[in-house]
Amino acid sequence: MTRRGAPPSLAARVVGAVLTILLVGGVLVSASTWLNGRQAARQAYDRVLLGAAQDIAESIRVLDGAPFVDLPVSAFELLAQAPDDRIYYAVRGPRGGLVTGLYDAPVDGDDRPPGVDPVYFDGALQGEAARFVQVTRRFAERSFSGAVTVTVGQTTHARQAMALDLMLDALVPMIAAGVALMVMSYFVLRSAVAPLLALSDGLARRDPYDLTPMQTEGLPRELQVMIDAMNRFMGRLDRQVEAMRNLISDTAHQLRTPVAAIRVQAESIQESDDTTASAKAMERLLARTRSLGRLLDQLLSRALVIHRTDSAPRVALDLREVALDMIDRRDHELLAPGVEVTLEIGEEPVRVMADDFSVGQATKNLLFNALKHGAPPVAIGTEVRGSEAAIWVQDAGPGPDPAVSARLGQRFERSTASQEDSAGLGLSIVAAVATALGGRVEMGPRDGGFRIALVLPLAPETTK
Amino acid sequence: MIRLMMALLLLALPAWAQEDTARFGTGATVLTLRSTTDIAIVRPAIERFVATNPDLSVAYEQWGSNDLFADSRAACDGEHAPADAVLSSAVQHMVWLVNAACAQPYQSPATDSLPDTRRWRNELWGLTEEPAVIIYNRRIIADADVPRSRFALLDLMRAPPDALVGRIATYDIGASGLGYLFAHADSLEATTFGAMLEGFARVDAVATCCSAEIIEGVASGRYHIAYNVLGSYVAGDMDRDVGVILPEDYTLILSRSYMIPRGAAHPQAAARLLDFLLSAQAQEILAEAGLVMTRDLVETALGASGRRVIALSPALLVALDRNRRAQLFALWDNAFRTERGP
Question: Which residue of B has its CA nearest to A88?
Fold first, then answer.
């Protein structure tokens, strides 16, 4: 996707790595085959040298009290196995005296004392690299006794040619294998990278506002993990954007009527001359603004709840503590002074995995609805039902109109008849919390009153 | 004064070892060619060469093979300037010189087309194919008595008619490098060599120096039979009285070899001469002179098994080995009873 001055692509990286491996391997293999070839050539031609030298040593006789060499042609035919190499030979008596040989002067290194085993040494023949062997034959005759050394040498053309041949013989199939590997790795790489390329193509062509999930079918596992993560992220983004959009439109919608009413009342105060009437209107205006404040609170808290359902971590939460907290805060005394709120909780903890703020907001809205629209006494409590936990609020009233409860949870749950202090918005918060935490809202008549409950799945025992 | 002159003469002696000289062409670049081949035999080929290469002229020096070897060794040791090219029939000398790194390499399509037996290290090339033959005087030896193989010659010598005593000639291996080479090759080739030497002893055979002298002797009837004569010289003389036999048991085939000494003044010119001598044109001229065996001669007189090419290979170094020389000379001297200095 990045085009210039960009870091290398995945394919380029892998190709580079494969090339490097092949090159380094090739150099190592060439070096090793060259060494092997040289070793093999050295051994092969050293044997030829030794054979020739021993052939010559065999041909030494003692004649009239002196060593005499009946030089065998076979030795030279053996040396001619290296057809283009020059030859050196010398047979020397006990005190280094030349018995026979090509030249009177010994080559460098041909002055070592006679040993038992053949001795190989490197030297030069007329300035050209050469290899020599020296073998010793001992005589113990009546007329002659002592060691006679035979030195045979040869230049190294044939050795080098053989080493090169051996190396090439080994290298040619290896080069072919290397090329085959390159071709294969090209195709393997192409098929491996193909889904990635398709994916990056898809991403490049994608509308920046398109937050729908990407297809993961047929993708390699590693990529699926990535795409799943990306899809989850996009989903959350999508929901948040949606929530924000809803919040804005809700807010606009909810505020339009009360703000218009406030304006009308303020204008009527301005135009009225009657002080008693304007004092009355002022009181209504005050009540309106207070109600508007609460509405704003609720809108904010709903937005917060919806935001948190996606982002806040779930923690282990005891619903009894939520209910207890509700009583302890005594917010209800401000809202409905004089109304008794009773607490009904058991001994056992009622644990769920949830966001405590969201659950608190939902409970608060349930309680406030009961205080405002129901009849006292009001009770708040928790209970465990099988694999579910519930936090509930009950009042002695008949409950809402069935039509209202049917539309429960929708955003604009505020009948035109109702006052600005909206029960509908409160219930929609509860419903949103329930949905986000995988639970539900239950409501119905109970013990001559009306009970509404937020039911959530019980936390697994293992999570303490 | 006389002493001084003597000293000068002695110093100049190696230069006197050459038997004959000739100058071909008028080109500015003078190619010195030292050879054992008689000038008369190579004249047509060299004349053709300078005719097609007008910028070159050839200073041809004819040498005895042993002297030429000594001269080349001295040149290789840096004692004096080497020739531009050396052509010798004593190929063991040439192999020795190449083995001692006295030659320089050259490669061309012409040299590459030579068989392995006529090339070594791209420094030594065999130009000719010449058989070692038995010659006889047609007037004296009847057709039926002509020895067509070594065995026949042996039989002839085993019960020699008195007429044959002192009438069989061969090269003196001490004086002739070529004669020594043939004797060496014979000694390697077959056990007949020992019997042959005994036979020579029995008939009081004559070991003498040079090809020309032997052929002349046979032609004149002084010798009846000569053994191991280089066939090319006979063909060159084309004497009607001289009969030529390629021995049927085996015939040694020699290839005169050519090398360009290291440090030669005109190596390119020498290489041009080499390429010319290997060309079809020059080979034809050499064949006319008898230096290259014609195909029908090879096919009719010799089976494939009878051809013993003396290959240019390091195995020829054995021929120059001092112990082996001593041994061969001992056998030879025993047969010919010649006195030899230490």
Answer: B99
What is the mean predicted confidence (pLDDT) over B62-69?
90
Phi, psi of B105 (to 5 degrees): -80, 155
* ipTM (interface predicted TM): 0.81
Looking at the structure, tell me whether residues B196 and B262 fall in a common domain: no
> Residues A263-295: pLDDT tens digits?
888 888 888 777 887 788 888 888 888 888 877
d(CA A437, CA A455): 10
**Helix, coil or strand: residue A123:** strand
In a domain, B297, yes or no: no
Top-confidence residue, A207 or A414 = A207
Partner A, chain B 108-167, Cβ-Cβ below 8 Å: 116, 120-122
Residue B188: closest C-alpha in chain A? A73
- Quick check: A102 contacting B, CB < 8 Å? yes
| Residue of A102, A125, A156 to mutate, testing the B interface (most B Cβ within 10 Å of its Cβ) | A102
Contact B101, B314 (CB under 8 A): no
- Nearest alpha-carbon partner for B135 in B195, B194, B211: B211
pTM of the model: 0.67
Q: Which CATH number does the domain housing residue B37 bear?
A: 3.40.190.10
| B180 and B312 belong to one structural domain | yes
pLDDT of residue A464: 41
Q: Are B35 and B61 a contacting pair, CB within 8 Å?
A: yes
- Mean pLDDT calculated for residue range B72-86: 92
Task: Identify the sign of the CA torsion B160, B164, B170, B173.
Answer: positive
